[in-house]
Design brief:
59% helix; DNA polymerase, domain 1; globular; mainly alpha; SDH_sf
């Protein structure tokens, strides 16, 4: 398990330059990130290395992510958007 400081770094890295991507990652980071396994945390960090435009296209299913390893974590981020509970607090 990653320590709290490393988790905070991941949260900070999840803040993006494109508002659309930032909003899609926000719920996932707040609700799902703390529950991820160490392997999934590594995949999420790899996902954050993508450009904002590529990430937006993958999240919106405009194009398929060529890296098959990232597809499950992309699906988890998309699934976090399906739950429409009010998001409380900031990340």
């Amino acid at each position: 398990m990653m320590d709290e400081i490393e988790l905070k770094r991941i949260v900070w890295r999840s803040r993006r330059g494109l508002l659309e991507v930032d909003l899609q990652l926000e719920r996932f980071v707040k609700e799902v990130l703390p529950t991820l396994s160490a392997a999934d945390l590594i995949l999420f960090q790899d996902l954050l290395l993508l450009s904002d435009n590529d990430l937006l296209d993958y999240l919106n299913c405009k194009t398929e992510c060529p890296d098959e390893r990232l597809r499950p974590i992309l699906e988890q981020v998309r699934s976090a958007q399906i739950t429409r509970r009010p998001l409380t607090g900031a990340i």
